Amino acid sequence: MRTNPHILEINTRAWLARLEAKHGRRFTLPEIPDQYWQEFKDLGFDAVWLMGVWKQSPKAGQIARENADIQQQIRQVYPDFNAQDIIASPYAVYAYEAAEDLGGEAGLRQLHEKLNGMGMDLFLDFVANHTAIDCPTVTANPDFYINTGKEEPRAHKDWFFKNDNGVWVAHGRDPYFAPWTDTAQLNYFNPKTKEFMLQNLLKVADLCDGVRCDMAMLTLNKVHRDTWWEFIGGNLPKEEFWSIALQKVREAHPDFKFIAEVYWGLEWEIQEMGFDYTYDKVLYDRLRFSNSEDIKGHLGAEHLFQMRSIRFTANHDEEESLKAFGREKSLAASTIIATLPGARMIYLFQMLGHPVRVPIQYIKDFFKIDEPIYQYYCKLLKIASKPAFHGGQWSLTDVNNCGEDVSCRHVLCWTWKQMNTASTVVINYSDTPARCHLKIKAAGGEGKKITEEFSGSEHDVTPDIQQKGFDIELKPFESKIFTYGI
Predict the structure, then answer these.
(1) Which pLDDT score, from 0 to 100, does residue 445 have?
(2) Do 427 and 328 share a structural domain?
């Protein structure tokens, strides 16, 4: 993968349902027409993250279909939905085996080989914290899980369920929310649990080029202890699971990549354990709820941290960007994340103009593609795929007032430089017009131009521009990218 890679997240089963509706036939993974993979490659994607390829949990599917909240969320968008189109959550993993209806392991390997041949990597899910409630290990090896044996829990009984042998096993949970009732909580203070999950991870690593690790911070020793101390005690293991696991995987696959979904200020700690990229949820929240000054402050963080962050304005957990941000703001936010250092993640349905999020368990999400939104992303991704955005040097760039007009405070600006070329990104991140004065060190002389990438307009590099710079007028949430010789 390139430096600052572009990663496409796909809700696999929902996408396949759309393809089935379009083509009138079902596809397994290796049968997906090459035209779609070629389109993603042409847009500049370095990797595809197929979310939800593992064997489905029957019990988790039943729980999802009977869940009133899930039904209500779907009903708000699709009043006449069929409950049989609700499937198990991809994050209640029954087994790390490629689902047979998607082509099984042979089909997944075939797709992996195809993507690699096209120059793209394949990423898959790994859920370290828990398994599906009916994962065979729940009954065969209950000690791999937080449990109280056959004695009813003395506290928090609602966090537990009985396995088939009458053992009380905990549901997986985030300490700030109610348990996920379709899951069973693994016990990372048991060395055998760590070995079991390491073997699963090694199995997954044989099938792809990288993994996105769900809620990676929940398996950190201190987090695990603080979440489950009543049942496992407070003595921390000497080593962290991730430190051991990443090392073992890379002994077998030196170039294997790890992405961590991580929050609570634990990003740097996870990075130090060897993760290539960690979620930058702080930037997402600032893009959504804060102003340009707060965003600039976040972008002043240490450069290595920036390079190892993965940025996004939508994913399967967040509200769709069109609804969360609003139409124009969502495009400005996506332009920001597509032109920053670090990994840049785009959700397929976001790119197609998905208007509102529905639960990931509902697969027949047949929204109409928003063509202007799709075309904007196509143009943006192609611009951001130019070499300077991947092999160049990035720096924040100052803009100045235009006379007494101080609206430049709403403008975000940075520059990528590579060899004799530079690209300067200028974004008005506000709902009012803005003006700013930009000074750049553009090479002058006969035929030298400054090109604005979105419009394609060109401007001669005059001595006046070289000495004084030029004024830029921006509509609300408008972005401009200037490319020039240096």
Answers:
(1) 79
(2) no
Q: With b meaning 16 or more CB within 10 Å and e meaning fewer, what string describes 214-244? A: bbbbbbbbebbbebbeebeeeeeeeebbbee
Q: Side chain identity at 158, as an amino acid letter?
A: D
Give the Cα separation of 193 and 195 in Å (integer): 5
CATH number of residue 384's parent domain? 3.20.20.80
The answer to whether the Cα torsion of 90, 95, 98, 101 is positive or negative is negative
400, 340: one domain? no
Residue 406 lies in domain: 392-485
Q: Is there a single domain that holds both residue 460 and residue 357?
A: no
413 vs 111, 121, 425, CA distance in Å? 40, 31, 5
**Dihedral sign (CA 139, 143, 144, 150):** positive
The arithmetic mean of pLDDT across residues 378-397, rounded, is 96
**Which residues make Cβ contacts (< 8 Å) with residue 417, sequence separation at least 6?**
388, 392, 393, 395, 486
DSSP label at 11? E
The 10 Å Cβ neighbour count of residue 54 is: 25
Residue 112: what residue type?
A: H
Tokens 């002994």, residue?
251
Asked which of 326, 357, 390 is the last residue of a domain, the reply is 390
Phi, psi dihedral angles at 289 (to 5 degrees): -120, -15
In a shared domain, residues 234 and 343: yes
pLDDT digits (tens, 9 = 90+) for 174-207: 999 999 999 999 999 999 999 999 999 999 999 9
Alpha carbons 27 and 124: distance in angstroms, whole number = 19
Residue 290's Cβ-count burial label (10 Å; 0-12, 13-18, 19+) is middle
Flag whether 118 is in a domain: yes
Q: pTM score > 0.70 for this model?
A: yes
Which H or E run contains 17?
A: helix 12-23
Tell me the angle at which helices 327-338 and 371-384 cross, rounded to the nearest 10 degrees: 20
Tokens of 233: 């005690």
Asked if the structure places residue 246 within a domain, the reply is yes
Secondary structure class of 35 (helix, strand, coil): helix
| CB distance 333 to 283 below 8 Å | no
On whether both 480 and 439 belong to a single domain, the answer is: yes
Q: What is the mean pLDDT of residues 31-47?
A: 98
What would the pLDDT profile of 318-353 be if each residue is shown by its tens digit? 999 999 999 999 999 999 999 999 999 999 999 999
* Domain-ending residue, one of 372, 390, 408: 390
Please tell me whether residues 384 and 250 are part of one structural domain.
yes
